[in-house]
Design goal:
Largest sheet: 7 strands, mixed
Strand content: 15-25%
Bound molecules: S-adenosylmethionine
Order of helices and strands: HEEHHHHEHEHEHEHEHEE
Oligomer: single chain
Shape: globular
Number of strands: 9
Number of domains: 1
């Protein structure tokens, strides 16, 4: 009789745990669907969370608008992703940061806003014009962090930065083919506990397709996962975040 009761209770509790959990007056407290990929965000929710967490003040808005004003491609990170960069740089108490891919300076301003006064960002940009527009936008943002925009191919510039390391954070947001090289450089030049952040980690939806570009992006993921503590956050185009052990 007692044994029968125990089996019944066990079955009952496991079926509770199996279900998309409703208990205590039918209020949903946990959920299997989201774990299997169902998304609950919609335009209204995204607008709300962006307004609460990632709202632009005037210096941020001018940096965000700088690419459009200068007739450059508007391919900067979105406000929520910019806020994520700010949070990450604050989380690792970043004092020395490398950014690969400056564009008009919006993400550099976001990274700088997460840092304490006196920090330094080296931001690498291939296009002279992008660098000039970025320098102006960064100056207007009144930062208390020094942002040095360096012009050239990041693959050629990175070795010259090794003397300034180790770094607290490396943000990669440039030519996608070179992500494995940028990842390897970051692993070598981050301090233990420092983080690698890579935007467009879904490769515009092509991450699992058959192409050399996709293979290289997969190598970026797999090498980070093999050697670091890593995750790929489900931002619209994926943001890889990995901590150096
Ligand atoms: C997506 S945009 C960067 C956006 C910027 N991180 C932001 O969110 O505000 C990519 C930039 O990387 C630059 N770029 C592309 N290949 C590069 C390379 N090999 N070295 C340095 N910069 C490069 C491009 O000129 C472009 O300005």
């Amino acid at each position: 009789m007692v044994l029968g009761m125990k089996v019944w209770l066990l079955r009952r509790s496991s079926s509770f745990l199996d279900d998309t959990c409703f208990f205590r007056s039918n209020k949903r407290v946990a959920d299997k669907d989201s774990r299997q990929g169902q998304r609950y965000d919609d335009a209204e929710i995204r607008t709300y969370v962006e307004r609460v967490h990632a709202r632009h003040d005037e210096p941020l808005q001018q940096a965000f608008d700088a690419a459009e004003r200068a007739g450059m491609p508007q391919i900067q990170v979105a406000p929520n992703e910019g806020q994520l960069l700010e949070v990450l740089s604050a989380m690792v108490d970043a004092k020395r940061v490398v950014e690969v891919g400056t564009l008009a300076g919006y993400s550099a301003v976001r990274l700088a806003r997460g840092m304490k006064p006196g920090g330094k960002i080296f931001s690498l940009e291939f296009e002279e014009k992008h660098a000039a527009v970025a320098r102006e936008a960064i100056a207007k943002a009144n930062l208390d962090v020094d942002v040095e925009v360096m012009v050239g191919d990041a693959r050629a510039l990175l070795p010259s930065l090794e003397q300034h390391g180790p770094f607290d954070l490396v943000f990669v947001d440039a030519d996608k083919e070179s992500y494995p090289e940028y990842g390897a450089w970051a692993r070598k030049n981050l301090r233990p506990g420092g983080i690698l952040v890579g935007d467009n980690a879904y490769l515009f939806g092509n991450l699992t397709k058959e192409s050399e570009r996709a293979e290289r992006m997969r190598a970026f993921h797999e090498e980070a996962a093999g050697e670091m503590v890593s995750v790929c956050l489900p931002t619209p185009d994926g943001m890889l975040v990995a901590v150096k052990r």
